[in-house]
Design brief:
Layout lengths: L3 H30 L5 H65 L1
Length: about 100
């Protein structure tokens, strides 16, 4: 399981790489598409999408992490129920045997 802090650090690392790639991409794609833009505008555009990406990445990571934890707890509960059923069955079988011996 990943902690919230670990999720955030992973998202920040992803964000730094994505920011760099995105900024370089803007300088490459805008001229090809005939879009004129300044360095300042490119930085603002990249920052905007970077913040959106960080939020999206963090939320999705936490959602799936929560689902994994819920599934692990569900599996543990199933195992506990199985163990309890086994113990109860053995106890019942022992009492039944003792009861049958006493009735003879």
């Amino acid at each position: 399981m990943q902690s919230k802090r670990q999720s955030f650090i992973e998202s920040l690392t992803n964000l730094a790489v994505g920011y760099t790639i995105s900024l370089i991409s803007l300088f490459l794609i805008f001229p090809i598409m005939g879009i004129e833009s300044s360095m300042g505008k490119n930085v603002i555009i990249t920052c905007y999408f970077t913040v959106i990406s960080l939020a999206r990445s963090y939320i999705i990571r936490r959602y799936f992490n929560k689902k994994i934890v819920q599934n692990e707890r569900k599996q543990e509960l199933i195992a506990l129920k199985s163990d309890l059923a086994s113990i109860l069955y053995k106890e019942f079988a022992n009492k039944l045997r003792k009861s049958q011996k006493n009735s003879k």
